[in-house]
Amino acid sequence: MSDSMPVADRGAPRESLRSRVIWSAVIALVVLAAHYPLWSAWRTSQLLASEGVEVMGTVTDMREVPHRRGNSYHLTYRYQFAGQSYEEDEEVEYQNFYGHSIGAPISLTVARAHPSVVSVGTDAQWQFMLVIYAGCYGLLALASLLWVVPWLRGLLRGHGRSRP
Question: Which of 7, 95, 102, 126 is the most exposed place for a label (fewest CB within 10 A)?
Fold first, then answer.
């Protein structure tokens, strides 16, 4: 009895390879698109670190927005910079939210060249997102190994290259 594959089955590895390449491309595009929030937060953080100046503003509104998995906290504040008045709404951490009240002064960091780029408190938000992304990448790497290794073994066996 021969160990070779029937002629009709030889197309299966190519179809499997094609579908895996397509799925890999889709996953790569999703991963790249998911980078935008992290990149945007990191860019803002770097801009504020390099050219940020501290200004005082006034809290004009506070909102707690309920979600299925907890709440988000928003502060609206008004500030003046270089003779212009600005009003921004920012999602902040729980501690920053309850540390303020409407009408109270608030310390802000404003980008000198881009006064509409402003932040309350620290840049811990982008660092937290970095931890989340690192965890997701770990899971993605594990899933890739669990998906690719068996496929490669089957591909090698199908072409007679694996050990008996």
Answer: 7
**Does the reported pTM lie above 0.70?**
no
Contact indicator for 84, 104 with CB cutoff of 8 Å = no
- Kindly report, residue by residue over 110-160, the tens digit of the pLDDT: 999 999 888 886 545 556 667 777 777 777 777 777 777 777 677 667 665
133 occurs within a structural domain: yes
Q: Is residue 39 part of a domain?
A: yes
Residue for token pair 């927005």: 65
Q: Report the CATH number at residue 122.
A: 2.40.50.100
Q: Is 82 left (phi over 0), alpha (psi -120 to 50) or beta?
A: left
The C-alpha atoms of residue 106 and residue 59 are separated, in whole angstroms, by 6
> In terms of residue numbers, what domain contains 33?
13-158
Beta-bridge partners for 56: 107
